[in-house]
Every structure is written in structure tokens, then in C-alpha cells.
Design goal:
Helices cover 69% and strands 0% of the residues. It is mainly α. The N terminus and C terminus are likely disordered.
């Protein structure tokens, strides 16, 4: 041992704190160089306890427990523990998952809280590490953007408050731009806002946002453009590349293969077909002239040719093979990169779907072996896809057996291409063959992935709801057993829910409700790929509504409450309320009326949009309740729509308003119901007489209901006057000529009137308003 090493050892041996710190630093160094899963850190972190007999809290026996020890302390962290928290943050940021990013952010908040109180100066780097951890967390792009924007906003707000906080630097905004590239939304305005702030940091004029950018910012912006999948974005990436290639007086920036490859990727993803592929190849020629081309560059261009239209497939395959020939003659030392180019070529040939695609791919496999490199599974997969496209399933089976013989494990995507081809075919026994291939897949020890189950469930959802449900259960079990490649998504659930909604099996209503519950469970467990929406929930509600039982009515009300209190994606619409009302009308008419009244109020304050079908269900529910207040609500709704959305109104709906008034007579309000019915008709007939636009009169049924109200209340003279008006309206072309039913009502009314006269001695007189406002001469 050298004298310096001996002195260090002596210091550590005499000082317990130094022993613990030395051991901690060594553990952190070892852990930070490893990219293994978090569980493997337990042994490394155990070295904290090996530094002599110094007492170490039992909670610090693994990395997780040490992090928990720091996060759960109620007292202020010491400088030593703050340093440990910084080190742990750096470690977990490399995990590449949501757990690591979440722990990073929690550690950051603890460091900020205790470090700020002790006057420690936090650097922007620590925030950048946490933002980068979210970028690498493999969660949905929108969630990544949300977390990174939140952290960047914290930096800006805290630094503006004058606290001992760093301002965001160029790396911070570059990391934000990388986050935007992971989202499917158009975030160009946000990217340009980040560029403005970068120009402020560099002290430059921001008139032209894309000018005078440093290389790292250019790369971040190019990466954003390469993920947009648009022609304009690819052109912007290329323009930025050309700007970067211009000589600058005040900076030493040179273009390299990374910048070029991003632009190649942008054209490959542009969706421009053969045009985009040729633009990418033109840039590849420029790279070759600059001696910047790599096997990755060739692979990207070859991949661009795999996205051409069918009519350009022959020309695309010729260019792919020519590029491979050129690549072989370029003397690259990166054999792995060359193999990836061969994989890309095989994929391009398979995607072009030419007749001899499989033969050409088999020839590529032979050429790969001539390079003394064993073909990868991807090349076999492309060949199997080519066989599947031509319906050559026996040849695909032989190639799979050959792969097993050569020790190449088939990927799920190889079987997926076969299953997809079978699902799209019109073969007589295609469903039996799909099941046979799935069993063969399992026998080859290849785990199905999400695409596998999506293809099978989608196929059976069009023919066999039982099989579709069975495969969904198989998928959920596989996922629970640890097959993370078979993560359920909204598509598979919606396929099963859709087929169960169409099913006439007795068990389908219960099955669709259980399926939806399983979907919600996935969402609650953090599966971002499962997101129930309004359409999904409408299908479940509509299915339950077809079986009007108290149990189903209770389930439907539970679902409606979730939709009303949930996010906008599950907000109820006209279809929702129509199905709910139709079910409740048959199970509990009082509840149906309550829901209908709520819908009317929401319509009037603009929070509910009705269609004609929903309006009919609402008015029918109100008409069935037998309550005077519901009759009033029905009339208010009619009058509101007359002035705001008259296109929804028709004579049948006017009948329902009058039916609500007639049925409210059972509520002990005979006279008021008769007045309401007569007043309603009076206003409509008056508007019609004055030639008002959008005037809707009821049919003969509606007039009959009004006459029935009048006769039951003993107001026969008003009923007779209304009959006269009906006769005059009939002469003007409206089909409301009084029928035998109306005259029977009048006869019954006369009897009621006589009985009433004998009891009270009062004689009914004609309704003066009716006679004065809609006299015979005006109609």
C-alpha cells in the first residue's frame, strides 16, 4: 500500500463519519455505473453497513430503503444526507421508468426544501437531471410534457422570487423541446417560445428564432421536427441543417452525422412516400460527399423506401437493393450497423408486397451469412410477413421451424403478420386457423404482445362474442403474470364491448358490465393505454337499457354519475341520456322524470345539448310522471326551444307536452291542467293565425288530449269552441278534423257538467280569452 493510500485508510479508520461517507460514495459510484433494475441495488447499497462498527440505521439496507429513509425524515436533512439525496437522484434518473422519475422529483423537492433553508445554492443541473428522467420514463408523451413543463415552471417561478434558485439554462429548454417531441400534439409554438428564452440566455436578438442556435439546441429542434410526420416539418429540419452548415464568425459549430440522420428520419417519417424517400437519399449523397455517412444513415433511407405507395413499390425495391450494394462497398467497420441496414432492407421489401418479396429476402439472408454474420430474427420476420402477404402460410410455418432449428427465437411480430393476414382473408376456416396459429405461437415459447391480442380479439369481435371475451381474459391473465408486452389498451376492450353490445345472448349484458369494470380497473392501476370515453360508456349503458331490470337500472345510474363527475372525455351526451331515460321509463318513471327535469335545466343554461331523439325521451318521461310541476317544465322547455332551437320541435313532441298536462290531472290539479292545456293551444294557434315562422301545432292526438282535459274539468263549452277551431284548421289543410273519440269526450263532458251543476248550482261559461283571441273569423 502506498503512503498516500495508507494515510487515507488511517483517516477513515479513526473517523466513523468518514467511514460511512467513504462507503456511501463507493456504493453510489458502483450503482451509478450500472443500468440494471432497481432491485439489483440492494447488494451494492449493503456496503453502507460494511464500514467498521459504525451504527447505520436499519432502514438503509437497500437503495429503496435508503431513499425512503431520506424522504420520510421529519427533521431537516443534514448536509451529509443532502449530498446522499443528490447522489441517489443521479442513480434513479437512469432507471428509465416512471418509478425512477417519480423518485427523482420527490428527492428534488426534499433537497430544495432543506437545502434552501440552509442557504445551499442549487444548480440548474439537478433540475435538468429530473426533467431528463421524465423524458426517459417511457410513459405517454402528454404526461411527460406535463411533468417537464411543471418542473421548468417551478424553476422560472422560484428564480423570479429572488430565492437562492438557479434560472433555467439552455439545457433546461433543450430538455423541454425533447419532451415536446414525445407528444402527438402540435407544439411548434411552445418550441419557438423555448427558443426565444434560449436567445435571451445567449444575449442574442430573437428576430429569427432559428438563427444563431448552438448545436445542442439545433439537434433538439431537429429531433422535434423528425417526429412530426409532416412534409413541412421535414422541410424545416432540412432548412435548419443547411443553416447549421453555414460558417459562423462567432461560433465554431460543425454539422455531423447526428444532425444529418435526424433530417433523414424527418423525411422518412414525413408521409411523402417516394418523394420523401428520394429527398432522404439526396441528403445521403451529401453525407457521402462529406464523408459523414454511417450504416444508420443507409438504414434510415432504406426505411423511408418501405413507406412508399403500392404503385411505387417496384422502384422502391430497386433502390433498396442498390443502396445495399453501395453499403457493402463502403468498407464500414461497424458490422452491427450493416446488419441493421439489411434488416431495414428486408422490412422495406416485405412492406412493398411485390410478388417475389420472400425470395428476395431469403437472398438477403444468404448475403448476410456471407458477411460472416448470423441473420437476426428481424430478417426472418420480414420474410414471414412476405409469405403472409401472399397467403403462403405453409411456407411461413416451415421457415419458423427452420428458425427454431438454427436457434433463432421467433418474435411476436412474425406471428402477428400471419394472424393479421388470416383475419383479413376470406378463407372458410380462418377463425379455426387463427386459433391454431396462436397455439403454435405459444408452443414456440413466443409470448403474445398487445398487437397479437388486438388482431385476434378484433377478428372474433365480428363473429363470436364468446371467443372475443375469452381472449381478452387470456390477455389480462398474461399481463398479470408479468408479460408486460401484452399491456391491454382501449382498443381490445372496445372491441369486446362493441361485440357484446350487438349480442343477443342473455349473458351479454352482465358480461359487458364486467368487461367495463375490468377496463376501469386497468385505468385505476395506472395503465395509460386504457382510457374509457363517452362512446364506450354509451355502449355499456345502451346494452344494459335493453334489459329493464332494477339491477341494470342501478348500474346505469352508477355509470351516469361517473360520466357526469368525470373528465371531459367521458362527459354524457344526448345518446347517454336517451338510453338512461328509456330504461328508467320502464323501471322507475319518477326517477326518469327527475333526470328529464335536470336535462331541461342543463339545456336552458347551455351545459347540455339535445337532439330530437333525446328531447322526445325527455318529454315522454315528464309526461309519464303525472305531476303538475313536470307538466310546467315540459311547457317551459317547449317555449325555450321555440325561440332558441325551433328545428327540434315537431307535432309529435307537442302532443307529449299536452299529454303531460292531461296526466297531471291525476295530481288533483284538474282545473289548472285544463287551463294550461287551453293556454298552450291558444298561444300556438294565435301564432299560427298571425303567420309566425316556426309555429308548430299538435296533431289530432294533441287536440284530443286538450279536449279531454276540458271535458274532465266540466268545461264543455270551451271544448266545443276548440272543436270549432279544429274544423276551421282542417279546412286550411291541417289534418286535425275532429273524430269520433273527440265527440265521445264531449258527450262524457256533458254528463260531468250536469253532475257538477246539480252539485254546485254553477253554470259553466265559455272561455272568454279563447273566444276573443282566436275567433272564427281569424282562423
Amino acid at each position: 500500500m502506498s503512503s498516500l493510500a495508507f494515510r487515507r485508510f488511517a483517516v477513515v479508520a479513526r473517523n466513523p463519519t468518514a467511514r460511512c461517507l467513504a462507503s456511501s460514495n463507493e456504493s453510489i459510484r458502483l450503482a451509478s455505473t450500472s443500468r440494471t433494475s432497481p432491485k439489483s441495488f440492494a447488494d451494492v447499497a449493503g456496503s453502507f453497513n460494511k464500514a467498521g462498527k459504525t451504527y447505520v440505521d436499519p432502514e438503509t439496507k437497500s437503495l429503496h430503503s435508503q431513499i425512503h429513509f431520506i424522504l420520510s425524515r421529519r427533521d431537516k436533512l443534514t448536509d451529509f444526507n443532502i449530498q446522499r439525496a443528490r447522489a441517489f437522484l443521479s442513480i434513479v434518473s437512469k432507471w428509465g421508468n416512471e418509478q425512477g422519475a417519480t423518485l427523482c422529483e420527490r428527492l428534488l423537492n426534499r433537497i430544495y426544501r432543506d437545502g434552501l433553508s440552509s442557504g445551499a445554492h442549487l444548480q440548474a443541473e439537478i433540475y435538468n437531471i429530473v426533467m431528463d428522467a421524465w423524458n426517459k420514463s417511457s410513459i405517454s408523451g402528454d404526461r411527460i410534457v406535463s411533468r417537464v413543463e411543471s418542473l421548468l415552471s417551478q424553476m422560472e417561478e422560484r428564480s423570479a422570487d429572488g430565492s437562492n434558485m438557479p434560472r433555467p439554462d439552455r439545457v433546461s429548454y433543450n430538455t423541454m423541446i425533447y419532451a415536446y417531441s414525445k407528444s402527438g400534439e402540435d407544439s411548434l409554438l411552445k418550441v419557438e417560445e423555448a427558443l426565444r428564452k434560449i436567445h435571451v440566455i445567449d444575449g442574442r436578438d430573437s428576430t429569427d428564432l432559428y438563427d444563431n442556435l448552438q448545436r445542442d439546441t439545433c439537434i433538439a429542434v431537429m429531433n422535434y421536427f423528425s417526429t412530426r410526420g409532416e412534409h413541412s416539418s421535414a422541410q424545416q429540419a432540412e432548412d435548419l441543417l443547411l443553416r447549421l452548415s453555414r460558417p459562423q464568425v462567432d461560433r465554431d459549430v460543425k454539422i455531423d452525422d447526428v444532425a444529418f440522420n435526424l433530417v433523414l428520419k424527418a423525411w422518412s417519417n414525413s408521409g411523402c412516400g417516394i418523394y420523401g424517400a428520394r429527398r432522404a437519399e439526396k441528403l445521403l449523397r451529401m453525407m457521402i460527399s462529406y464523408r459523414l455517412a454511417t450504416p444508420v444513415s443507409f438504414s434510415t433511407v432504406i426505411h423511408a423506401y418501405s413507406r412508399v405507395e403500392r404503385k411505387d413499390s417496384v422502384a422502391a425495391v430497386d433502390r433498396v437493393l442498390s443502396l445495399l450494394d453501395e453499403l457493402e462497398g463502403s468498407h464500414f467497420h461497424e458490422s452491427d450497423g450493416i446488419v441493421s441496414s439489411y434488416n431495414a432492407a428486408a422490412n422495406a421489401i416485405a412492406k412493398c408486397e411485390i410478388e417475389d418479396a420472400a425470395d428476395k429476402i431469403l437472398d438477403l439472408i444468404k448475403r448476410t451469412r456471407n458477411l460472416e454474420v448470423e441473420p437476426e430474427s428481424n430478417m426472418y420476420t420480414s420474410c414471414i410477413e412476405a409469405y403472409a402477404n401472399r397467403g403462403m402460410f405453409d411456407e411461413a410455418r416451415k421457415l419458423l421451424d427452420n428458425m427454431k432449428t438454427n436457434g433463432v427465437r421467433p418474435q411476436a411480430v412474425a406471428f402477428n403478420s400471419i394472424l393479421d393476414a388470416l383475419a383479413k382473408s376470406h378463407a372458410r376456416h380462418r377463425f379455426d386457423k387463427i386459433e391454431q396459429w396462436f397455439e403454435f405461437m405459444l408452443s414456440m415459447d413466443t409470448k403474445p404482445d398487445t398487437a397479437t391480442y388486438s388482431i385476434i380479439i378484433s377478428a372474433f369481435s365480428r363473429s363470436d362474442e364468446q371467443k372475443a371475451s375469452d381472449y381478452l381474459r387470456h390477455m389480462l391473465k398474461s399481463f398479470r403474470d408479468g408479460n408486460t408486452h401484452a399491456t391491454p389498451n382501449s382498443f381490445v376492450f372496445n372491441c369486446v364491448i362493441n361485440t357484446l353490445a350487438r349480442s343477443d345472448q342473455e349473458w351479454s349484458a352482465e358480461a359487458i358490465y364486467r368487461t367495463f369494470n375490468a377496463m376501469e380497473n386497468q385505468r385505476r392501476q395506472g395503465n395509460d393505454l386504457v382510457l374509457p370515453d363517452t362512446i364506450t360508456m354509451n355502449q355499456v349503458i345502451s346494452k344494459l337499457a335493453k334489459s329493464p331490470t332494477k339491477s341494470n337500472a342501478k348500474k346505469v345510474m352508477t355509470l351516469l354519475h361517473k360520466m357526469e363527475s368525470g373528465p371531459p372525455e367521458t362527459a354524457p351526451d344526448a345518446i347517454t341520456y336517451t338510453a338512461v331515460l328509456q330504461l328508467q321509463q320502464r323501471v322507475n318513471s319518477s326517477r326518469a322524470a327527475v333526470i328529464a327535469a335536470r336535462c331541461i335545466r342543463q339545456m336552458m343554461d347551455g351545459t347540455c345539448r339535445m337532439d330530437k331523439v333525446m328531447l322526445k325521451a325527455v318529454l315522454f318521461s315528464l309526461s309519464r310522471s303525472g305531476k303538475a310541476e313536470d307538466a310546467t317544465i315540459a311547457r317551459d322547455a317547449w317555449e325555450f326551444l321555440e325561440y332558441n332551437d325551433a328545428a327540434l320541435l315537431d307535432p309529435e313532441l307537442a302532443n307529449l307536452v299536452l299529454m303531460a298536462m292531461r296526466n297531471s290531472m291525476n295530481d288533483g290539479e284538474q282545473l289548472s291542467a285544463a287551463d294550461a292545456a287551453l293556454s298552450f293551444l291558444q298561444e300556438r294557434v294565435k301564432r299560427f293565425n298571425e303567420g309566425a315562422a316556426n309555429t308548430v301545432l299538435p296533431t289530432l292526438v294533441g287536440f284530443s288530449l286538450a279536449i279531454e282535459c276540458l271535458c274532465k274539468s266540466g268545461r264543455v263549452n270551451d271544448a266545443l269552441k276548440l272543436v270549432q277551431i279544429m274544423e276551421l284548421l282542417d279546412k286550411r289543410g291541417l289534418p286535425v278534423k275532429p273524430d269520433k273519440g273527440i265527440y265521445r269526450s264531449l258527450a262524457h263532458g256533458r254528463t260531468v257538467e250536469k253532475e257538477r251543476t246539480l252539485e254546485t248550482g254553477e253554470v259553466d261559461r265559455p272561455h272568454e280569452k279563447l273566444a276573443s283571441s282566436i275567433g272564427d273569423n281569424k282562423v
